[in-house]
Every structure is written in structure tokens, then in C-alpha cells.
Specification:
Largest sheet: 4 strands, antiparallel
Strand content: 15-25%
Length: 173
């Protein structure tokens, strides 16, 4: 059995695609995901399963589409992978709420940095295994104009949230 974190893209954005975490937990229970629980209202689901990652992702995406009436992409990471992401953060010198990890289902492209647009002088971008890390400068994420085409299909969480999800996933093992 493996502990997983499912990160849903595009739920509970301001005024769009509302998904109550109790509904997400109920979906996990319907899919017979064990020890299922949610963390904060941004589409984070933790659970344990013996099924392979791809099957779990497909099950969750199909069930979310049926529930929400639109495609909801799901990024999955094991507890071990989440801990590795925390350790791999290349911007640990910045505050956790100023660094985002963009989770994707694929590796970032080799030309990632060449495709980044509107980067401010104090913003930093780096590729991870299946993540893109961004340290936002003094303007912060709210006023940043940074565009990362490769990460647009993914979902972002700040490093404080990533660290908490890693801790909670480890507790499920």
C-alpha cells in the first residue's frame, strides 16, 4: 500500500468550480481509497491505495468530470515523492509562501527557461523532476506577470502547503 497526495487543478478558484472538501472526501470513499482525507480547500486529497498511479489518476479524473461537469486534471505524488520535492526546493532561502511548486504529470521540457515570459528581475524559475519551482520576487505572486507555458496544465501549491502535505502523507504510511 502506498500513501498518495492528489492535487486537483482548477477547483475552488475565486467564483469558479466550487468543490466542497466533504464532496472530495466522499468521492474518495466511493472509489474505495483508504484513509482518505482532504487538506485545505484548494483540492488536496491524501489517501492510501495499492493501485498504480496511472489507474488512480484516471479513476479520479473520470469521477471528478462526472461530479463537476468539466475536466479536472489530477497530479499524483507518493509520500516519498512529496518529501523529495520539499528537499529539492532550489529556493529554500525564500519564504515558503513566496515559492510555488507547479505540479505536472510530465517532466518539464528541456527548454523550460527559454519559454518563460514576463519574468521580473527578481523572480527565479527552476525545473524539478515533474515540477517547476518559482520564487516570486518583491511583488509577490499576486502582482507577478510571469508566464510559464509548460506549467499551465499543472497546478501550483506554495512550499508551506507542500511541506504540510508531505508531512500528512508520511503519517498515512
Amino acid at each position: 500500500m502506498t500513501a498518495y497526495v492528489a492535487l486537483l487543478r482548477g477547483v475552488n478558484l475565486v467564483g469558479k468550480s466550487t468543490l466542497k472538501m466533504a464532496e472530495l472526501k466522499a468521492i474518495a470513499d466511493e472509489l474505495k481509497l483508504q484513509k482518505a482525507r482532504t487538506y485545505i480547500a484548494s483540492g488536496n486529497l491524501l489517501f492510501v491505495s495499492g493501485e498504480p498511479e496511472e489507474k488512480l489518476r484516471e479513476m479520479l479524473e473520470e469521477r471528478m468530470q462526472a461530479h463537476m461537469g468539466k475536466q479536472v486534471r489530477v497530479m499524483l505524488r507518493t509520500a516519498k515523492e512529496m518529501a523529495g520535492i520539499v528537499k529539492a526546493n532550489p529556493f529554500s532561502d525564500a519564504a515558503g509562501n513566496q515559492v510555488q511548486a507547479f505540479f505536472m504529470n510530465e517532466k518539464p521540457p528541456k527548454d523550460l527557461l527559454d519559454t518563460v515570459r514576463n519574468k521580473a528581475h527578481d523572480e527565479r524559475v527552476a525545473a524539478g523532476r515533474r515540477e517547476v519551482f518559482v520564487a516570486y520576487g518583491e511583488k509577490g505572486i499576486g502582482r507577478s506577470r510571469l508566464r510559464i507555458p509548460a506549467a499551465e496544465a499543472g497546478t501550483a501549491r506554495n512550499m508551506n502547503t507542500v511541506a504540510k502535505l508531505a508531512e500528512l502523507a508520511r503519517e498515512l504510511e
